[in-house]
């Protein structure tokens, strides 16, 4: 039993924060009305957070820095608890979850856990 728990922990830690494409996001789009903010001219970083999520604060800082560095990129933070319908529709299972949207609002990348700045910048390359 302990080996199974340890294996799960290693796999979960390895996946956390990685920005990746998920097939089931194909075709899903978000509009400014759903986000409560305008989409970026080139891309939008959408962060789903919760009140007691410590990694969410670090993720907010990283995404804010990236949005400030890359022209035309917006960062929008959404309280997952206040937007449960959107959370369910997008299969958000934990916070923080980051969605990278292109200029039209289509989801091109997704990360769960705290992403690294370099990974976010690389993911923007596909959206821009």
Question: Can you walk me through this structure?
Answer:
The protein has 128 residues and is of the alpha+beta class. The chain has helices at residues 2-15, 32-35, 54-69, 84-89, 117-127, and strands at 19-20, 43-49, 73-79, 97-102, 107-112. Helix 3 (54-69) links the parallel strand 2 (43-49) and strand 3. The longest helix is centred in the middle third of the chain and has 16 residues, at 54-69. It starts with a helix and ends with a helix. The model has no long low-confidence stretch (mean pLDDT 86).
Summarize the structure.
The chain contains five helices and five strands. With 128 residues, the chain is of the alpha+beta class. It has a five-stranded mixed sheet, with helices on one face.
Radius of gyration: 14 Å
What general form does the structure show? globular
Query: Structural class, judged by helices and strands?
Result: alpha+beta
Poorly predicted runs of 5 or more residues: none
The fraction of residues assigned to DSSP E strands is 15-25%
SS field, number of helical segments = 5
Sheet bearing the most strands, described? 5 strands, mixed
Helix content: 25-40%
Topology, number of strands: 5
- N-to-C series of helices and strands: HEHEHEHEEH
Strand order of the largest sheet: 1-5-4-2-3
Instruction: Determine the mean pLDDT.
Output: 86
Q: State the end-to-end distance.
A: 45 Å
């Amino acid at each position: 039993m302990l080996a199974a728990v340890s294996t799960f922990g290693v796999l979960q830690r390895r996946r956390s924060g990685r920005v990746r494409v998920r097939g089931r996001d194909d075709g899903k789009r978000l509009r400014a009305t759903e986000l409560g903010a305008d989409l970026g001219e080139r891309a939008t970083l959408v962060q789903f957070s919760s009140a007691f999520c410590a990694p969410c604060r670090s993720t907010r800082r990283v995404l804010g820095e990236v949005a400030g560095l890359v022209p035309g990129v917006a960062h929008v933070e959404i309280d997952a608890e206040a937007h449960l319908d959107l959370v369910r529709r997008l299969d958000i299972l934990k916070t923080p979850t980051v969605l990278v949207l292109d200029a039209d609002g289509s989801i091109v990348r997704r990360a769960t856990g705290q992403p690294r700045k370099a990974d976010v910048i690389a993911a923007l390359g596909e959206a821009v």
